[in-house]
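Reopening: structure tokens for the DAU complex, inputs below.
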Amino acid sequence: MKILITGGAGFIGSHVVRLFVNKYPDYQIFNLDNLTYAGNLGSIRDIENQANYHFVKGDITDPDFMQDLFAVHQFSAVIHLAAESHVDRSILNPIEFVKTNVLGTVNLLNVAKNAWKTNPSEDTKRRLFYHISTDEVYGSLGEEGFFVETTPYDPQSPYSASKASSDHFVRAYHNTYKLPVIISNCSNNYGPNQFPEKLIPLFIHNIQNNKPLPVYGKGENVRDWLYVIDHARAIDTIFHQGKIGETYNIGGFNEWKNIDLVKLLCQIMDKKLNRAEGESAKLITYVTDRAGHDHRYAIDATKLSTELAWQPSLQFEEGLEKTVDWYLANEKWLSYVTSGEYQKYYELQYANR
Ligand code: NAD
Ligand code: DAU
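Re-run output (same inputs, fresh job):
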């Protein structure tokens, strides 16, 4: 089976690619990534020489390129993660999010539809377009309640509006053209290889370098955190056992107020850096709130655990400590991703392949 994974040089995609390459030596895994600021081949260097792994530099929004790639490789399945993913960037530049997340997804759907001729009954192989989405499409919760798979969409940021739109197109292609699709909507991920613009890696970096920790508003917003490798495991489970046409929520029932999470992170960092207790927390600085900041996300992942027997493997405190250890041990990765050095590495290593 040849599987196209888009966005495999990004945070979550790199963990999904690694899991599939190592766990399924019989599958050929094609990682298609445009290597934007968020894509780094350094995150998957450990698997780049494996026989079943192939990297393709390309843009999901380019119809001719994607059509040619499908024609050459005849992919059986797509796991689509490529996206613009940072809410703050979407507030500054919404158009970029429409291009990548909406047009890019529709382009991929179209190419897959044309390549597969959309008649699954004539097809002996399993075909699947698996779209990776976010809990942010459901909007913002008050103090009570959870997002379930049937919660009406109510996106509040340009990022979540672009993801919601792409989800709608995925369902429209299933309904109209019978394209075999699955969607999963996951809560906030954390762990190794996340670009240091997101809360946890940014704050680890700032604590280490004695820089202020910019907590938006009063730090009262709530996020539901899942270790990235548990998300990759869920994607593996859904890819192999999920039902065509279904949606699955992914989350670990692990809600944290931002300020409580930041204080826990400061405590862990004090220990790791041999600082006096309370030293890192002095860096906490309350700053102007994010525009339209969603108050609370909380995922109900009961369907995934009851129907497909998936469970998260890590408790948050353990996962956060592992994450801190990883960033402290991988300062080089951080300097690579922030300097763009890996783009240069790509040019040298891959340009002639
Ligand atoms: P990321 O920003 O770390 O990585 C995105 C990847 O997509 C990068 O490697 C980038 O180079 C690539 N990319 C961007 N535009 C492209 C294009 N036009 N063509 C080809 N490749 C392109 O993102 P992430 O945090 O790993 O998120 C991956 C997916 O999971 C996204 O769809 C996101 O919406 C979703 N998601 C993320 C989270 C989270 O907490 N990070 C939670 C739920 C869902
Ligand atoms: O819920 C899933 C989503 O989680 C994904 O779809 C997105 O791709 C991913 O970026 C993430 O979105 P958030 O906006 O929740 O993540 P972020 O790390 O940017 O922020 C987490 C919380 O921390 C949020 O309430 C904003 C706050 N924050 C963030 C930053 C970067 C701060 O207070 N200060 C900061 O500097």
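The CA atoms of residues 34 and 58 lie 5 Å apart. The mean pLDDT is 94. Marking as resolved unless the reporter disagrees.
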